[in-house]
Design a protein that fits this description.
- The structure holds 2 protein chains of 2 kinds.
- Chain A is mainly β.
- Chain A has no helices and 11 strands.
- In chain A, strands 2, 4, 5, 9, 10 and 11 form a 6-stranded mixed beta sheet that branches.
- In chain A, a hairpin with a 5-residue loop joins strand 4 and strand 5.
- Chain A is globular.
- The relative contact order of chain A is 0.33.
- By secondary structure, chain B is an all-beta fold.
- Chain B has no helices and 11 strands.
- In chain B, the strands form 2 sheets. In chain B, strands 2, 4, 5, 6, 9, 10 and 11 form a 7-stranded mixed beta sheet that branches. Chain B has a 4-stranded antiparallel beta sheet with strand order 1-3-8-7, with no helix packed on it.
- The radius of gyration of chain B is 13 Å and the shape is globular.
- Chain B starts with a strand and ends with a strand.
- Classes of the chains: A mainly beta, B mainly beta.
Chain lengths: 116, 111
């Protein structure tokens, strides 16, 4: 079964500082991995995804993530935080094949606060 | 406009009542999903559908019923609402590049 662990339910950074949100996954088959962002009272928006191409994935708003199979990790980073990055971030894993293709398993989320 | 919509956006109902949450998409994506979001749990899959007339249970299906007679609609019904079903419900579709698109959500309160 698939599962995702997001380390740290809350992360606080200063504006301009590095953002690092951690995600580890468990998967019995090669996974597809995703990061979504959720702003207050809104649905989820895709930031980036890994679907077995390049291991370093670039997404929207300056975010990127690196798939590390040996560490079963898919951490999200941004070199310089902006106030508008304050939101909740979700890591998710999906099967890359089989009858459960497309089903997402989400982590519990990390709330990012950006201080001026 | 193309996209995914949910209705109602907000709903308050009483314990024991039947409630139906609507989801409509204009892309003709085959896969559709229903999630609930609760504090501390992230999003959990309730039901999903691979095509019209094909549905399957997710992680937390108890107390919910779905149907999908048309590709574009995927209603979720709470047959007898309970307070534990107070939550925010999201509908989503899946495109050919494995990206899920989420609706704006329905905030349901069961009193």
């Amino acid at each position: 079964a698939q599962s995702v662990t997001q380390l740290g339910s809350h992360v606080s950074v200063s504006e301009g500082a590095l953002v690092l949100l951690r995600c580890n996954y468990s998967s019995s088959v090669p996974p597809y991995l995703f990061w979504y962002v959720q702003y207050p009272n809104q649905g989820l928006q895709l930031l980036l995804k890994y679907t077995s191409a390049a291991t370093l994935v670039k997404g929207i708003n300056g975010f990127e993530a690196e798939f590390k199979k040996s560490e079963t990790s898919f951490h999200l980073t941004k070199p310089s935080a902006h106030m508008s990055d304050a939101a909740e971030y979700f890591c998710a894993v999906s099967d890359s094949r089989g009858s459960t293709l497309g089903r997402l398993y989400f982590g519990r989320g990390t709330q990012l606060t950006v201080w001026p | 406009d193309a996209g995914i919509t949910q209705s109602p956006r907000y709903k308050i109902t009483e314990t024991g009542r039947q409630v139906t949450l609507m989801c409509h998409q204009t892309w003709s994506h085959s896969y559709m999903f229903w999630y609930r979001q609760d504090l501390g749990h992230g999003l959990r899959l309730i039901y999903y559908s691979a095509a019209a007339d094909i549905t399957d249970k997710g992680e937390v299906p108890d107390g919910y019923v779905v149907s999908r007679s048309k590709t574009e609609n995927f209603p979720l019904t709470l047959e007898s609402a309970t307070r534990s079903q107070t939550s925010v419900y999201f509908c989503a579709t899946l495109d050919s590049s494995y990206e899920q698109y989420f609706g704006p959500g329905t905030r349901l309160t069961v009193t």
